[in-house]
Amino acid sequence: MARRRSATLTEAELRLMEVLWQRGQATVAEVTAALPPPPIAYNSVLTTMRILERKGYVAHDEAGRAFIYRPLLGREEAAGHAVGHVLSRFFDNSAGSLALRLIENERPSGDELARLKALIEEYEENGK
Asked: Where in the chain is CATH 1.10.10.10?
């Protein structure tokens, strides 16, 4: 049985997950070949794939002697886990505090501002 999913992915794990999300499934050799620079050694990719499997992010099927890995969650779900981790560790589970910090640190684009205004209006109208 897979271990409980860790809240965040390391940089190395994220690089491998990006390949799996793009391809849908891949062997270790295929992941290694598809990685952008800098290259990662085959054995390092294999070890990291095993760690991702233990964490519950990927699973594998056997095809002959090869293991074909596939993601068990999508990019958006992984991003949600990471945001939840940041919320709990740094913002006392306050999404509003996180949003304010993000907007204070970097000005949103015109499209992002329009989307934010629309969300605020929706929340005000619906009493959420």
From this structure: 1-90
Per-residue tokens: 36:
């952008």
The predicted model scores a pTM of 0.77
> Could you give the CA distance from residue 46 to residue 58 in angstroms, rounded to a whole number?
12
- Greatest C-alpha distance within the chain: 58
Q: Give the pLDDT confidence of 14-72 residue by residue, as tens digits.
A: 999 999 999 999 999 999 999 999 999 999 999 999 999 999 999 999 999 999 999 99
Give me the amino acid identity at 7.
A
Contact in structure between 56 and 72 (CB atoms under 8 Å): yes
CATH-assigned architecture of domain 1-90: Orthogonal Bundle (1.10)
